[in-house]
Amino acid sequence: MSSAQTSALKTATANRTAPEHVSVAVIGGGQAGLSISHFLKTRGIDHVVFEKETAMHAWRTQRWDNFCLVTPNWQCQLPGHPYDGPDPHGFMKRDEIVAYLDAFRAKVAPPILEGVAVLRVTPREDGAFVVATTVGTTIADQVVVTSGGYHQPIIPRLAERLPGHVAQLHSEQYRNPQALPDGAVLVVGSGQSGAQIAEDLHLAGREVHLAVGDAPRCARFYRGRDVVAWLHDMGYYDMPVEKHPLREGVRDNTNHYVTGRDGGRDIDLRRFALEGMRLYGLLDGADGAVLRFKDTLTAALDEADRVYNGINAAIDKWIAEQGIEAPPASVYTPVWQPDAPSPTLDLDAAGIGSIIWCIGFRPDFSWLDAPVFNGAGHPKHHRGVTGTPGVYFLGLPWLHTWGSGRFSGVARDAAHIADRIVERMQAATNLSAAE
């Protein structure tokens, strides 16, 4: 990057105006956006990061008070910023995560425009892109979308018909049990957020009803180690999506539920049931204050346990093949079985004062005017490189490997995208010289 380009970028970001031109526009100021900024800076490529809120906004505002990582701290490997704290095998809490990310931002010192929303990105005939923002328009030679895929909270339409005196919130709005109205709580969804929020409420002594989905689960520790450590040694986290048995279908999978809370442990919904939590199948509809559920609970719990035991069996196989000394193998056996299914739940009769919807998010890339999406609105790409030259995605789940959307794998993906950006720049320079 020339001194003139550097000066122009500094002036633009200081004045919160969109620069007239940059080689690369980065859309999103989370860990993915700052990771690609790191590699673009080391390669001397001028760029600007547009962030509609503040850097790492989601980590500051969309996590509950007792939130913690579900992967061990040693897996935090942002570029040039590995975890170096005192507890590599522990699980950082929300405020510790924010501090880790703040330190990463300080190291990167990205050219970032915060509080600036991108309204539209439109390709030009010459191969560049018009990036329209709330503070002006930038012409970018290439664009990297790092805004993630969790944009629009999913709340079912039936929520509109439920009694107004029952408080409703999405998982991103949940903070702690004390902030909820009095009464029992219905949690809908048992993925990572739903299972952990249900646990948070349960440990606080709240009466919890949980509508269980099809999320799998895994052990926290097995045969003397964190399961993540075993899977790391087995090469699971280096497996590209093309070699996964489900191929690209794995991107649609719900994450396994487990927790890093209090040093880490399993989440066993059956044990919660023994302790008083009420479990139901998938939510199927509502008639006033009466909710209906499908008869899916037994099958969902059995499938989650099958996955749990399957992961452990794969670890057993690895230990045997490598001749590793380890504590003996074990198989999980259910500690509780559902009785006859509970097809309905009367919110008023059960004293339920609040519902927390934990059923995920929808992507919203409507601002990107480029033919890079499938019929479901998800980006089509190979390792983040789309079919439209100069448009890239970074930070999505299973973009390349399991860690692509996490602190553990985004650096590898960002370096790959930066290399592709350099290649396109060099090709354009060579073409110009030939002409």
What would a concise description of this structure say?
With 435 residues, the protein is α/β, with parallel strands linked by helices. Helix content is 28%, strand content 20%.
Mean pLDDT: 94
Number of helical stretches of at least 4 residues: 9
What is the domain tally? 2
Helix content: 25-40%
The first-level CATH class of the largest domain is given as Alpha Beta
Q: Beta fraction of the residues?
A: 15-25%
Large-scale geometry = globular
Level-2 CATH architecture of the largest domain: 3-Layer(bba) Sandwich
Structural class: alpha/beta
Q: Report the CATH topology name of the largest domain.
A: FAD/NAD(P)-binding domain
Question: Helix and strand string, N-terminal first?
Answer: HEHEHEEHEEEEEEEHEEEHHEEEHEEEEH
Uncertain runs are: none
Terminal residue distance? 24 Å
Compute the gyration radius: what is it? 24 Å
Tell me how many strands there are. 21
Largest sheet: 7 strands, mixed
- The CATH H-level homologous superfamily of the largest domain: FAD/NAD(P)-binding domain
GO molecular function: flavin adenine dinucleotide binding; monooxygenase activity
Keywords: Oxidoreductase
Protein name: MSMEG_0569 family flavin-dependent oxidoreductase
Organism: Methyloraptor flagellatus
